[in-house]
């Protein structure tokens, strides 16, 4: 019996290597950027299965889990932390929502190395002023080479706006 050695090209090995997550900024730093000088009070919540199903149906967005970290700012605005799938990782981000349920700001906390263009201010600014509604997550916000990250974070922002509009702002979660 003769053994054979097969050499695998480095490009194939490199392509199979999982992406490494990079912390873009700390939670504390991101909170201060979104709500400078404000006091944030924890307002975590869990959606019921029927609430999740309604958001999925009305807004056409996926969920990772029903539990959410949230904070109410001293001025009444909300800050939500969420996670979505990237290409080979989980992206953690924050979305700040004003009293009219418009996006006030977006901050990326953790994303995969090489796909963090979504942390750039130019990309995040495309969401400012958006509100819950029937807008398409892939509409005008895709960065070449980071398509999944762009679409999934966009879906997440749309999901958080829907959750705020239907449940959080009306006190229907706890």
Largest sheet: 7 strands, antiparallel
- The outline comes out as globular
Total of DSSP H or I helical runs spanning 4+ residues:
5
Unreliable spans: 1-21
- The CA-CA distance between the termini, in Å, is 67 Å
Helix-strand sequence:
HEHEEHEEEEHH
Q: In which range does the helix fraction lie?
A: 25-40%
**Number of DSSP strand runs:** 7
Strand content: 15-25%
Radius of gyration: 19 Å
Category from helices, strands and their pairing: alpha+beta
| Average pLDDT level | 81
- The overall number of domains is 1
Can you characterise this structure?
This protein has 174 residues and is an alpha+beta fold. It has one domain (19-168). The protein is 30% helix and 24% strand. The protein is built from five helices and seven strands; from the N terminus they run αβαββαββββαα. Strands 1, 2, 3, 4, 5, 6 and 7 form a seven-stranded antiparallel sheet that branches. Strand 5 and strand 6 form a beta hairpin. Helix 3 packs across helix 5 (147-168). The protein is globular, with a radius of gyration of 19 Å. The termini are far apart.
Pick out its properties.
174 residues, alpha+beta, 5 helices, globular
Task: Give the helices and strands, then pairings.
Blueprint: H1 10-16, E1 21-23, H2 27-34, E2 40-42, E3 45-46, H3 49-59, E4 67-73, E5 78-85, E6 90-97, E7 103-112, H4 121-124, H5 147-168
Helix pairs in contact: 3-5
